[in-house]
Amino acid sequence: MCTKTGVTSALVKPAAFQLLSDPSRSSTYVWGAKISERYFCKRCGVHVFGRGHLAEVGGDYVSVNLSCLDDIDPGEVTIGYWDGRHDNWQGGMRSTPWPVAAAGE
């Protein structure tokens, strides 16, 4: 399996994002509340980046899969954790992973 399938994402403002490859080489997927649009490599299916708007992360954003960038080692990046598993976005980001079970479960 390709190491690029492991998603470690970084959020950036749209103005700080520049797509360097041909946009026709990716396909998109939008689901649920349509908060974001995800882009996948048409050749291998890996999630490359996403675009969306979420007030809890400061509005418009681009979420980049750091594992897809050849010059970055995701193991050397400081990680912040959100509790998306429980739709607990108001809980904010923290330096340790959120528990698998929600409070009271």
Largest sheet: 5 strands, antiparallel
How many helices? The count is: 0
Q: End-to-end span in angstroms? A: 34 Å
Average pLDDT confidence is 88
The helical percent reads under 10%
**What is the CATH topology classification name of the domain at 3-75?**
Metal Binding Protein, Guanine Nucleotide Exchange Factor, Chain A
Structural commentary:
The chain is mainly β. It has a domain of 73 residues: Metal Binding Protein, Guanine Nucleotide Exchange Factor, Chain A, CATH 2.170.150.70. A 5-stranded antiparallel β-sheet has the order 1-5-4-3-2, with no helix packed on it.
Key attributes of the depicted protein:
single chain, 105 residues, mainly beta, Metal Binding Protein, Guanine Nucleotide Exchange Factor, Chain A, 5-stranded antiparallel beta sheet
Explain briefly what this protein structure is.
The chain is an all-beta fold. It has strands at residues 9-12, 26-30, 36-41, 47-54, 59-65.
Strand and helix layout:
Elements: E1 9-12, E2 26-30, E3 36-41, E4 47-54, E5 59-65
Antiparallel strand pairs: 1-5, 2-3, 3-4, 4-5
